[in-house]
UniProtKB/TrEMBL annotation:
Keywords: Membrane, Transmembrane, Transmembrane helix. It comes from Streptomyces sp. R39. Residues 1-25, 144-166 are annotated as: Disordered. This is Uncharacterized protein. The chain crosses the membrane at residues 178-197, 203-226, 400-419. Residues 1-12, 144-156 have a biased composition (Basic and acidic residues).
Amino acid sequence: MKAEQRATEEAPGRPGALVRPRRMRPHNADVVRQARLYADGRTLVLRDRRLRERRYPVGAGGIRRAVFVQPSPDAWEAVTKRPAERWGVLVFENEDGRDVLSVPLAEWLPEAGAVGILHLKPAKCLDRTGLRELAAALGIPVEEKPRSESGERVRPETGSGQAPDRAVHRELPRWHSWIRGLGLFGWLVALVVAFAADVDWCLPVAAGALFAVPAADAVVRVGAWWRNRGDDGRRFAEAVVITPDPAPGEGATPRFRRTASVRVLPGDVVLTDTVGQERWLGRDGAHGIVRLVRLVSAGDRQPLGVEFRDRGGEARALLPWRHWFAGPQGRDRWEEMVSALSASATDEVVRSTRQPAGITKPWWNGHSLAADARMMSPLPSKDARAETSWHSSVIGGNELLLVPLFSLVLLAGLFGDTLPARLAGLFSLLTIVAECAPATTKSLFSRFHYDKPYKNA
């Protein structure tokens, strides 16, 4: 049914029949840049972050239909319990009705983190991702099937217990979770044995096992930095790069000026927000970016923002004008972006909603891409630290407190008389440093420079 092989970075097939992943943080930039779903003739191809391909033939003995499974009608349940399926799932089936490949729509919508579930209907999300166009390119009919009373889709009995493949993107590699879990488990077991059976050499084993927790994080972060460092110059060598030119007095920070960008490639538009989250929007196909709409105020016709719209007229990204094009070089950058995209540029009046006296909110409040406008603007220092903190945004904030506390149990051994105690103390010290030093350094750098507005901003 499927075959695996290595691929090049260029996906063959029709440019429009190409589905791109959701936006992701810098440590997963290789997912956004390389993972794709596309059609290669009569074959559906799923390519992962390492350019490994799974190929699913279409036709006799392969995929025969696609079933669009609607999300739960309870929006809260859809977002909290199954966030990847909050807009539904497209399931590719064979001729026996067995599920072959399950594609959660939220995993393949580039602006998934920037648009709310209430602002985008599931059927429209299916179009925006390009999955409906992909199915059409493969000659696969898309249909919808009912759900059972339990909320699951009604499926035929096929007698096969084989689970379908899932086209999802892990936030962290599987080995990372295993090492962290084994490290915590090994620390607990070795510590119990050391004190219960009075086995001295279990102390450094316990401390070393706990050190594996921050070490696994460090490997992921350093590896991502190294990959991105080498990849950026090569992949974007010929891109037209648009960086923000904010108006004076708008609170622009070094982080915003150095991180946020719009990069125009021959077949893609790459948007990077203030905290480094990257997403790729296509320029071809039924939902490629073909139009820039400058939103202006109703009264004085002052520019407020810029929408990137696709061929269907749907807004896919939103840039606040005052943070991107209101500076001394802003007009030139606006014209450069319009020229690079070869897109039509028009103005559209925004009808602002009335606000209570004394309350001033951003003009984009109520816009379907309000979250996008916020992330494409300078963030308050506290918000920027929270969004970029490894512990609060990726791992979980409690680890920064708990792991050093666990290490304190054996830290005093650093001044002990025996070699096992000293080794345990050394590993404990390394664990505390590995856990706390990066977070502390990053926080201080943010407070005193990176997220502090320029004096003339």
